[in-house]
Amino acid sequence: MFKPADLFDLSQTGHAALFDGCNFAWDALKKIESYLANVPKQNPPRRFPGASIGEKVFIGEGTTVEPGVLIKGPAIIGKNCQIRHNAYIRENVIIGDGCVVGNSSELKNSLLFNGVQAPHYNYVGDSILGHKAHLGAGVKISNFKLFPGNIFVEVDGQPFDTGLRKFGSLLGDGAEAGCNAVLNPGSILGRGAIVYPNVFWRGILPANMIAKNKAEIEVVVKRPRGR
Q: In terms of DSSP bridges, do strands 140-141 and 187-189 run parallel, antiparallel, or are they unpaired?
């Protein structure tokens, strides 16, 4: 499930060329910076009052950029997206058509396929989110491990060096992570997979599987204080 076509419908991005020659989907992350070396010029530039937008940024027709947004670039943002108040889009970001990047969400060195939603307090670093993948409020995709060395992924039962010091997650088409979930470095969610809210996830979740906590909730009688 590590090949690009195993996780993603490549017709749902205008940047499928990033995956050319990639044996593993995460290899596309190594190409984003060079791919964005020549961002198409926008003439005339689109104006978004109250937003701060770098020079190497292309924004598609129908996309709204609300006041308070910072887009450093280089970046390409597709058509009919919503880039909401206080979103922070850092270097080397590609966003497809019909995407939502919301309040206090931060992106860097990532590719979002069409229809992706990262709408509330999300961090997306060094990651690829497939068609209509969705992050609940507060989901964090961790891209850097505490110990030295590259990120490893288990391939055929053996640890495999991805060659990446920073690597967040791959979310297949339609995958979802619930509110306040954390996806640890090198996590891979197959198509339609779901990580429930508050889950601290590490590793590989196959397509159409659900990861959820089993923590028990205690319900007790409410009693007045002092009795």
A: unpaired
Q: Output the CA angle 81-83-85, nearest 5 degrees.
A: 155
Return the SS3 of 37. Answer: helix
Q: Render pLDDT for 42-55 as a digit per residue (tens, 0 to 9).
A: 877 788 999 999 98
Q: Distance (Å, rounded) from C-alpha 227 to C-alpha 219?
A: 19
Q: Where are the domains of the chain?
A: 4-211
- In whole angstroms, what is the distance from residue 126 CA to residue 144 CA? 9
Which pLDDT tens digit goes with each residue over 60-110? 999 999 999 999 999 999 999 999 999 999 999 999 999 999 999 999 999
Sheet (strand 176-177) strand order: 64-65, 82-83, 100-103, 117-120, 134-135, 176-177, 194-195, 210-211
Nearest-5° angle of CA 212, CA 205, CA 166?
A: 110
The set of residues, in sequence order, having a beta carbon less than 8 Å from that of 122 and lying 6+ positions away, is 102, 105, 106, 135, 137, 138, 139, 140, 141
CB 25 within 8 A of CB 8: yes
Cα–Cα dist 85/101, whole Å? 9
4-211 — its CATH code? 2.160.10.10
